[in-house]
Amino acid sequence: MVLISLLVLNLLHVLNLVPLKPYSRSLGERLLVPAICNSIHAVMAMWAKASCSYAGLYPLTLPLLPIVTVGFSVCMKLASPPSIHISVLISILSGTSFVITVSHGLAGIEPLEYMYAPLALILHSLSLTWLAKVSEAELHHPPDAQASIFDIYYTQLVNQSWVLGLLWLLHPDSPWQVLSRGNWHSLLFHGYLLAILLLGMVLNFLVGISALCVSPLAAAVLHSAKQMGQPLLHLL
Fold it and tell me: N or C: the chain end with fewer CB closer than 10 Å?
């Protein structure tokens, strides 16, 4: 998914649709933390989706993502932290969704979820807030030296590709063994795989751009909108 995102951005750059500066080492160093956090979070999310039921602990914690993001926004002293009214409203919605989901009961919780779920929540919130912090820091640079939001997002993707590649090689199962389990001769498999990759790429792009252009809270709400909205809709 990360490689496809890099390919699309480079293609748009070649077509002069998206201006991109060459990879900057200094910017890459500042974006190393969100790249590591995003990569580890992606691995945990993939494990949770593959190993656990929908009613597990990992999806239960997703409605809490906006609350944790508000906390990181305050701790990292963003120039434009979310207002108290918006923070309270989002906290009420997130808390209500969390309570409704818990009241329906949990089934099939893996022991590792008790560690992975809160850790994934913290890592994702930290990565969104850090991206916004880097974007704010770029505004203090001279106009000709400023990195655009696409430059920041592109640099973060490059960093993330290296981290994910390392995590893939460190996987207990051989990478080639994982690839060999796919049904590569089925057109239906190719169609589903392509659809999942493209939809995931678009969602990650929207979440990342929201964190850079709007706020980390907006990105967190966008990412967890489904898990926040479904329990509330059941009340109607």
Answer: C
